[in-house]
Amino acid sequence: MDQLAHSYRSITTAAAQRAVEAAVAHARSLGLAINAAVVDRCGILMAFLRCEGAPLHSVDIAIDKAYTAVSFGLATQHWDARLAERPATVRHGLMNRPHFAGFGGGLPILYQGQRIGAIGISGAAEAEDIACAEAGLAAVTAPGEQP
Known about the structure:
alpha+beta; PduO/GlcC-like; Beta-Lactamase; 4-stranded antiparallel sheet; GlcG_carb_metab_protein
């Protein structure tokens, strides 16, 4: 049977909720209005929280950042540099894929070295989105587990 199936861990609902709450609390402490999304290891939305006044377009962008981060296991702010030396067709092809977000605010969530989900933040400047995502990540990861 072990040749036919794998056992994977995924983020829990409680942990996903803690992550979006921590991200929003950090945003509020900075006077920001953001959207915060956490997806499970398969990219399915587990938790979402929107600050009053956060940009409506940023709802989908936050989810896409989380989806991108869990899909590739890479923080979304690293895509620009990663694609810089690739052919233009590859850069444009990937950047134009549905649900792909190649700018900061998406972080994979790891547990015991295994990708179990991701957090995505949108609504503020890129550096602020990243800071809020890091706050959300810190609420659910053990020391040394951050990507």
